[in-house]
């Protein structure tokens, strides 16, 4: 992720909450914004999410994408 460990820690925390269905709406919004800000989801996906279109599908995709981002970060750390 482009903005360092703080964003990774925030992404990890929010990913777990969204995955476990314990996230508040604000936390889900923050999670999707982090994915958008990082370029992991498109502007259209983020706009659709904010407008309430295909929200469940976009969140499911966000969880998969977020997991891949976190996995990539962890693998990168292994090779540092």
Descriptive overview:
The chain is globular. The chain is 76% helix and 0% strand. It has helices at 5-19, 25-37, 43-51, 55-78. The protein is mainly alpha-helical and 80 residues long. The longest helix is centred in the last third of the chain and has 24 residues, at 55-78.
Outline, from the CA principal axes?
globular
Mean pLDDT: 93
Number of strand elements:
0
Largest sheet: none
Radius of gyration over all CA atoms, rounded: 12 Å
Describe the structure concisely for a colleague.
By secondary structure, the chain is mainly alpha-helical. The protein contains four helices and no strands.
Task: State the main characteristics.
single chain; mainly alpha; 80 residues
Which secondary structure elements does this structure contain, and how are they paired or packed?
Blueprint: H1 5-19, H2 25-37, H3 43-51, H4 55-78
